[in-house]
Design brief:
Chain lengths: 337, 337
């Protein structure tokens, strides 16, 4: 049962110069916009996630309380619900889907909240991972509109090492000849399986596995069982071209890729004037806390608050209650400022 | 020009119960065995390396001084010089090559130094990565014979996270249908390329790439150039079955997999009575220093000495002079004890 709606944005000129016709953003809302139209929160999705992946952080009594806030969860381009290789017609279907950027996503999200809902101030933008990258992008693009940002387990620009991790995942998928340059008749199962297995080593921390939390907390009898029965199926559920489209967006993420900043990341970070709490996880292997520390030092109103977890990048996924509560508490603190 | 010799070990009963016929160990020696036959050093090779990969640590004035010591560098089974899938005849050729363990390697190395050279005491065993795993294995198997061990960037047992990293590399190679279950007519180029790209994200640290040391120190214009022109070719030089055979040895590495220890790693570590300096690199992503710290705490005569480098696992590869000198100094300290 679909619990989302669509915003039809028409033909969209992308950052690359290409035009994506009949672009749609799938989104879900929680709560109601108040009369002053000042209670909106934007909470973009992470890699391979949908609005449902964000539901853990939303609820009565939580920081993202739908009885208080109007929470808009826009799906990222390429995720299979918003315009994606898998749901776009020729000549932009499959591997011909144009490259989209984090900036393209955020400009569409801005149109969604302004054109559809008449919102001209946003109380908070928050998100996990690529959702955090979209959060930074909101802060850099719309500093007058965004009051607060809380990116967790993400960065304003994809680091070179993070790019390399993603390149490994991509190469594993492309090693499967069944991918056929993106024009596959049936899903490239071996390639997606390899993609998933490569990704698995990065998603948690070394300590997570040393402490056997995969057994205790994910309920799997062995690493092999976990990979085969839980982790691989979660990626097999995705279209391969969609996975690669979102991956390309991630690899290119950079708030300074903007005429106003001309690739100058410190200048772009200085433009993020919103009150911010930036939350890396202490053990995140691809968005390590050092990167966040460097970015926070260049932001005028930002606090660094490191998630003290061994769950690595997955600390931001809402699976581990301690981490979820840590993030929730930070969001409450920030919303109270 | 070959600079190595062979030790023919005949038909060898492996730890698995299988028999590998006409097993050969390729090795190189440096220096001369003294009259007392007490100046031998064993320095096994690392994953995908050969005796030449170890040459950086050997030389006049270095800790491993061939004017003082008799240094034996045995090549690991599966590396293409010692018995390997690529050089073994039917019915043990290619993917039919039996699984070999670190223990199998060390028992053969023990036969090499005792049967060929009449050595009954070893001044030092040292090695990088899987070479370190063989070093730990020497210490556990032959405590009366081994006076000192200096494993660097390695562990006594492959951690679960390390296993997972390797599983990702393996899956990337197996995603290439040209691998054909190991009976390929031509090398599975796409698969080995993917294997290399996956591996690249793990070999250094996040900080290494943040500081752009790949550009400054490896002399590459971009990450893509580095991958395509240097890193991939170094793996393309290897036979795919050989890469997988050594990987299986690595995934299964465990000094406690021995009837004396019955899987009890603390018991096995307690049996390593040699004077030891264990050197993880502070930023190693798959042999992290925490694992070494735990192992050292269970060894009776071991010192933990962390390599203070951002080169990650490659700190032990001899490329970075600071790290090479750090290791060399530790080896000198240990040999003086």
């Amino acid at each position: 049962m679909a619990n989302h709606e669509f915003f039809d944005a028409g033909d969209v000129a992308l950052q690359s110069g290409a035009v994506l016709p009949a672009t749609r953003i799938a989104y879900r809302t929680h709560g109601r916009l108040n009369a002053a139209r000042d209670n909106a929160i934007v909470y973009p999705t992470h890699y391979s996630g949908t609005h449902d992946s964000n539901a853990w952080a939303i609820g009565p009594g939580m920081a993202l309380d739908p009885e208080v806030y109007f929470i808009v969860v826009p799906n990222m381009l390429g995720n299979g619900l918003s315009s994606s290789p898998s749901n776009t017609g020729a000549p932009h279907d499959g591997p011909r889907f144009p490259a989209v950027t984090v900036r393209d996503n955020v400009i569409l999200q801005h149109r969604l909240v302004t054109e559809r809902f008449g919102v001209d101030t946003v109380a908070l933008v928050t998100g996990h991972s690529m959702g955090a990258q979209q959060t930074f992008q909101w802060g850099a693009l719309f500093p007058e509109m965004v009051q607060r940002i809380a990116p967790f387990c993400g960065s304003a620009r994809t680091s070179r090492h993070n790019w390399l991790f993603l390149e490994g995942c991509k190469s594993a998928l492309l090693a499967d000849a069944a991918f056929a340059g993106g024009d596959y008749a049936a899903p490239p199962i071996l390639g997606i399986r390899a993609f998933a297995r490569v990704y698995a080593g990065w998603a948690w921390s070394q300590t997570f596995f040393r402490q056997q939390l995969d057994r205790e907390r994910l309920g799997q009898s062995s690493l092999e069982a976990f990979l085969a029965q839980a982790w691989e199926p979660s990626f097999q559920a995705h279209d391969a071209n969609n996975l690669l489209a979102m991956l390309a967006t991630w690899q290119a993420a950079d708030i300074s890729a903007d005429p106003r900043f001309d690739g100058d990341l410190p200048k772009a970070l200085a433009a993020v004037t919103a009150k911010a709490i930036v939350m890396p996880c202490r053990t995140d292997l691809y968005f390590p806390p050092e990167d966040s520390e460097i970015e926070v030092a260049q932001m005028p109103n930002a606090e660094l608050r490191i998630i003290p977890s061994v769950w690595g990048h997955m600390a931001g996924g809402g699976i581990n209650p301690e981490d979820a509560m840590f993030i929730n508490a930070a969001l409450k603190d920030l919303l109270a400022r």
